[in-house]
Amino acid sequence: MDGMLSDSQIQQLQDSEGATFDRLFLEGMIAHHEGAITMAQDVIDSDNKEVAGLAAAIIEAQEKEIALMKDLLKRY
Question: For residue 16, which of 20, 29, 44, 72 is within the disulfide window of CB 3.0 to 4.6 Å?
């Protein structure tokens, strides 16, 4: 899935602290959320209304969280 951290990125995150940790965490989570949006967009037109509704809710929530995380990143 797009947005998954590689083993080296996870290690880098584990080895970090303070502002560097925060920045790496936010960058990784933004990529992860973008991957979730891509997956949700793939099923947004599902014939199953529950699946389509869940996909729409995921897209809306993840977009809001990405905006928040990008605002937080501006501090670093």
Answer: 20
User: Do 59 and 40 form a contact (C-beta atoms < 8 A)?
Assistant: yes
The amino acid at 23: R
- pLDDT tens for residues 50-70? 999 999 999 999 999 999 999
Phi-psi region of 3 (alpha: psi -120 to 50; beta: other; left: phi over 0): left
Mark out the alpha helices in the chain (DSSP H runs): 7-15, 18-43, 49-73
The full set of domain ranges for the chain reads 7-73
pLDDT digits (tens, 9 = 90+) for 20-44: 999 999 999 999 999 999 999 999 9
- At the topology level of CATH, where does 7-73 sit? Ferritin (1.20.1260)
Spatial separation of the C-alpha atoms in residues 11 and 25, rounded to whole Å: 12
Please report, as a single letter, which amino acid is at residue 11: Q
